[in-house]
Write a structure and sequence with these properties.
mainly alpha; hpI Integrase, Chain A; three-stranded antiparallel sheet; two-stranded antiparallel ribbon; globular
Length: about 190
């Protein structure tokens, strides 16, 4: 699959629910939950560990020593930008999932980006939803939050974006989806 633009592959709310229902393994629940419902980047999701969870939020650090395959050369992990350092609220339905997984595996998912991509593809196939890549789950989260009333500033803070234009972009996508549905109902009943 050619990656393309994330918003081209945004899943609907129903598709997200279907995808979630097919996450039968704890590892898949963590991965999909972190990206599709918490809006984490794949790098953040695969590096998250129990130390990041404080006060029922994910606290993404500015720096973390790491020797994984991705980080081996530099010896550390850090977010994509300074805006990636943030506290992310965990949806209520995910709290027990994350607690159970991180109690059993405090070091987190411990997988490569390629493994994350592969697992997302498997769950999408099981759910019968269009094949998406991990970052499209983050875009789905942004669109979903925008459709529920998040402002551009709130989206930027939650998702770790530097530019307000990113938040505005996802608000426009959410508005277009909603508007087109309403207009089709008006036209066709």
């Amino acid at each position: 699959m050619k990656r393309g633009s994330s918003e081209e592959h945004v899943l609907t709310e129903q598709q997200l629910r279907t995808l979630w229902s097919k996450c039968t393994e704890q590892k898949d629940q963590m991965l999909v939950g972190l990206m599709a419902y918490c809006g984490l980047r794949v790098s953040e999701a695969i590096h998250l560990n129990a130390r990041w969870i404080k006060d029922e939020e994910i606290h993404i650090p500015s720096y973390m020593e790491c020797r994984c395959q991705e980080c081996a050369a530099r010896g550390h992990w850090k977010p994509k930008s300074k805006h990636g350092v943030r506290a992310v609220a965990i949806p209520e339905f995910l709290k027990p999932v994350f607690l159970k997984y991180l109690t059993r595996f405090p070091e987190g998912l411990k997988m490569t980006r390629q493994a994350a991509w592969y697992r997302v593809r498997l769950v999408c196939a099981a759910a019968g939803v269009p094949e998406v890549f991990p970052h499209a789950l983050r875009a789905s989260c942004a669109t979903f939050l925008a459709s529920k009333g998040f402002t551009a500033v709130e989206l930027c803070q939650y998702l770790g974006w530097a530019r307000i234009a990113m938040g505005e972009h996802y608000i426009r996508i959410a508005e277009a989806r909603s508007g087109s549905k309403q207009k089709i109902k008006q036209i066709w009943g």
